[in-house]
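Predict the holo structure. Ligand: beta-D-glucopyranose.
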Amino acid sequence: MQTRLATSVAAALGALLLGACSGNNDVITQKATSAVPDYWPVIQSPIAKSDDVEKKVSDILASMTLKQKVAQIVQPEIRDVTVEDMREYGFGSYLNGGGSFPNNNKHATPEEWIALAEAMYQASVDASLDGSTIPTMWGTDAVHGHNNVIGATLFPHNIGLGAMRDPALIERIATATAREVRATGIDWIFAPTVAAARDDRWGRTYESYSEDPEVVGAYARAIVTGLQGDISDGNIDDQHVISTVKHFLGDGGTEQGDDQGNNIADEETLFRIHAQGYVEGLGAGSQSVMASFNSWHGEKLHGNKYLLTDVLKDKMGFDGFVVGDWNGHGQIEGCSNDNCPQALLAGLDVYMATTPTWKPLFHNLVAQVESGEIPMSRLDDAVRRVLRVKVRVGLFDLPSPANRSLSGDKSIIGHPDHRAVAREAVRKSLVMLKNNNNLLPLEPNSKVLVAGDGAHNIGKQSGGWTITWQGTGNENSDFPGASSIYQGIERAVSAAGGSATLSEDGSYTDAPDVAIVVFGEDPYAEGNGDIANVEYQRGNKSDLALLKRFKDAGIPVVGVFITGRPLWINPEINATDAFVVAWLPGSEGQGVADVLFTQANGEVAFPMQGKLSFTWPATPYQNPINRGDGKTPQFEYGYGLTYSDNTNLPALNETVEADSSEAADHVIFQQSVQEPWQLVAHSGGVSGAMNSSVLTIGDVTIRTADRNVQEDTLLMQFGDTPAKVHFFAPFPVDLLDFTTPNSALAFDLKVPSGTGIQAGIECGDNCAGMVPLSNFTADSSDWQSVEIPTKCIIGAGANLQEVYAPLSFVTQGKVEFAVSNIRLTQHGQPTTHCP
Ligand code: BGC
Ligand code: BGC
């Protein structure tokens, strides 16, 4: 489903290229030896440094022990830290990640969120164990509203907001978000993302407002202003939150759009394209910056002293703090999650230490300051930055989280005023690509059929970072107070005497006047959303078939496309009369109907007005494609029809020239199990599928773990009972592409204890090709790359035309192993023998 070079390989390649290309070498040498170029501006933050604040911070700092200081710069995550840990260590801050809730309860109430905030705060100011009374603060990813909380208002994702070109509305969205976050006792949010996404194969494209740095800059200013409120007196009040501009720097410009990949832009381009969100966001007073997972010329940003310290702090004058991303420090060369002085030395101020490794990390940092490996002055500077922000946000003066002005006012979560703002944003973000014979707007007193799997699916219309990290696994009932796109249409139509029928598969008995088909991408987040090319539903054009059924029956069709990025959908556009991109509108689906239908009297209530903030590709292989790059897109940056345009779009080109490169790897598991596969375990007559981070079946236990990036590893433990664990799909998949001579089933394996694993491919009842893994199971505690030539698996009985399980492990007794990076590839090592 997706191909990309493993990050490390990409980085290594980047480094290789560097060696070969003198142009890039110049950039590096210049960077190391000369001063920061003058195009990096000095920022004038509206929160000016004040002597009073500095004095207060100095007094606190002077009274702190080494351990208390280190605690200020270690940020654990609520799944791995208890209130008692907080009492003992007194962390400066903590977070909940995407899909992480108080008591691990997805349906935690606002009271439970506040209870956790209160307990953590009270433990932090309790000096009984750590001697410290410095209040802690809680950070969360409220990236399109307070998206981890049931019932919160969910705004359109950033890509949709970009299409509005309306910074004033952005500010109102931010104000509403800040209020909902404060209502749960939280002080700080990890937003806005100010990436200018330049390659839409990137799984985070929807978190970007635009490919255009100017839009990103204007929005960054507006959203920071809305989140932090009026800060002209030097303070953030308790109706507002600390904001974070992220991910510094160049995340939207990696090669092939790889998440956590390598950006090889020269420094001036890095500034001009990728840094504008920081210039404006910090210019509006944002108090924190999140370091990015990506590398710049092969060097991870978390360890990049030049950008973090020389540019951001020394030249631009940023005086807030730099927080890391999810164990991002562990990705620096020579670092691990639990040991990384390099990050602090480079200029990171707060380690986001999101696994149980926070504990060894803490003790290592203490030891590294004691030994002088980390100068006390650097630690003091980091702590000073954290404390400075705490003073500015009033943490030392405010009452505890449960007693602040908005805390516990449940009416704020999903407040009608906030929903009204979100609905307005939905209306303004729609972009119409086609409206032949002015089919739109529709009259509401019509007979409407609403089809497609996005029609009545609030999870799908909300995308990633929605209650769960990936945005998957949600039901409409998880969104109290929200509306699906279908529900909005139904309300608009029935109020005007028309009728709307929901029929996901498009079947009907009574021909409708018009069909609205709502379809598009399923939710994803971060690297899981990376794709090899931008063709929509390659190899399985079920939505095209649905659209065509109406078209063939002579029923006018409106396509409503749910997507996190421009995708190549020429065939789908051709199969409609009108085509509207709704992006990822969030909880207020009814905003779509507001624009698609006129009022009962035939007047347009809300104009169609969105304009593309990304260039739309003309072929699946055209990325990166950006305004001004000389390529001919399908729809230009800024395109978007209005109801007064009388434009008929001619049929678009549907022929796809095959990509010249070889077949992409078939990825089976990489941070998550890839579609259509599911991880299923069988043991002692019981079976079960994995749908959270742990699965126990009989005496088999599987857990996700972090090796290089989040959840990129599966740990499997087998007991005495013979067992099988496989990546399974109920329908067969044709994998004949992987019968070429060097094709292999490949994965990384570590077997700390036990033996007797067989691995192979299953092709239905009594059809499988299994081979022993004896060569790889020598009680090794090191990672090994395993490649099983598919010819060996075929020799053992597998048929690759009808694969039900592309990887199956069978065990006979006790064994424990870890596996990651699982794929079928055409590029295995040439070999003649089988394992
Ligand atoms: C993401 C950040 C996010 C953090 C905390 C990371 O993986 O890159 O954007 O703020 O997780 O959930
Ligand atoms: C966690 C999420 C987190 C994400 C950050 C995942 O492993 O489960 O909570 O937001 O990593 O990238």
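Residues 97-98, 141, 190, 246, 325-326, 526 surround beta-D-glucopyranose (ligand 1) (CB under 6 Å). The longest helix spans residues 167-183.
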